Amino acid sequence: MAPLTTKLLLTCEHAGNEVPAEYSGQFRGWDELLQTHRGWDIGAKAAAENLAAHFGVPLLAWDTTRLLVDVNRSLWRRSLFSEITKPLPKARREQILQHWYEPHRQLVTNTLAGLLADAHTRVLHLAVHSFTPLLYGKIRETDIGLLYDPARLWERRFCRDWQEHLNKDSEFRTRLNYPYRGKPDGLTAHFRKIYPDQRYAGIELEINQLYLSANHPQRQILLDRLKQTLDIALKNRSGI
Predict the structure, then answer these.
(1) Is-contact 8 126, C-beta < 8 A?
(2) Going edge to edge, which strands form the sheet with 121-131?
(3) Is the model's pTM score more than 0.90?
(4) Which residues pair with 112 in a beta bridge?
(5) Would the pLDDT of 238 be above 60?
(6) CA nearest 219: which of 66, 80, 42, 88?
(7) Would you list the domain boundaries of the chain?
C-alpha cells in the first residue's frame, strides 16, 4: 500500500486583539488588558504567516480577541468567556458564539474535511500560538514548545523528531508539552476525537513572545529555524 501524502494545515486561533464595534462599550476601560497576552497571542500571526508563505499553504487566522470568546476552547469550558463577557445575558453570549466563535471553528472543520476527503491524504494540523515569557512571576523555561497527545503515535514521533532537529546545534531550547500539556481541551484536541491517528495529527506550536517583537535580533533566526526543521521533519515522513 502506497504511503499517505501529508498535507499541512496552518491555523492561528489567537491572531489578534480586535474588538467588534458592537462590543466596544463592553470593553471600555479594558484597553490595557487587550494589549497583553490575555488579549491575544502576541506575534503568533506574523510567525504563522511566515510559515504559510514558506510552505505555500493558506493560513486560517482569527483576529478577534480571545477576551470576547476563546475559539480555542470547547463550549463547556469555564474559560470560554472572559471576565468581560461572562456577565452578559445568555442571549448576548449565544450571539457571540454564533458570530464570533462558530465561523472560525466551522472554517477549520470544513477545510480539514476537504483535505481528508482524499483517502490517500493525511493532515498535519499545526496551530500556531505564542506564550508570555513570565507568568505569575515565574519564568517559562523554553523558547519553543511542541504540544501533542502522547497517546497518538504519529503526533508523538513527529514532535520528538522535530524537537531533535530544533535542538541540534541551536541556541534555542525546545521542549515537549511545555509550557502547557497538549492533550487537554483545544481545537486540535477536538479534531482528535473525530479523526484517527493515521489520518490526523494536531500539534500546537508555542513560541516564546520574547523573540517575536519586530525588533528582536533573533526573531528571524528563530523563524528560519522553525521553517528549516519543519521542512526536514515533513520530508523524513516523521511519525507513521
Answers:
(1) yes
(2) 59-61, 5-12, 121-131, 200-208, 144-147, 174-176
(3) yes
(4) none
(5) no
(6) 42
(7) 5-235
Concatenating the DSSP letter of every residue in the chain gives -PPPEEEEEEEETT---B--GGGTTTTTT-HHHHTSTTTS-TTHHHHHHHHHHHHT--EEE--B-TTT--TTS-TT-TTSS-TTTTTS-HHHHHHHHHHHTHHHHHHHHHHHHHHHTSTTEEEEEEEEEEE-SEETTEE---SEEEE--TTSHHHHHHHHHHHHHHHTT-SS-EEES-SS-SSSSSHHHHHHTTS-TTTEEEEEEEEEGGG-STT-TTHHHHHHHHHHHHHHHHHTT---
Q: pLDDT, tens digit, for every residue of 107-163? A: 999 999 999 999 999 999 999 999 999 998 899 999 999 999 999 999 999 999 999
Pick the CATH number of 5-235 from 3.20.20.70, 3.10.450.50, 3.40.50.300, 3.40.630.40: 3.40.630.40
The answer to whether the CB of 222 falls within 8 A of the CB of 172 is yes
Q: What is the reported pLDDT for 69?
A: 98
Which three three-digit cell numbers place residue 18? 480586535
CA distance 224 to 25: 41
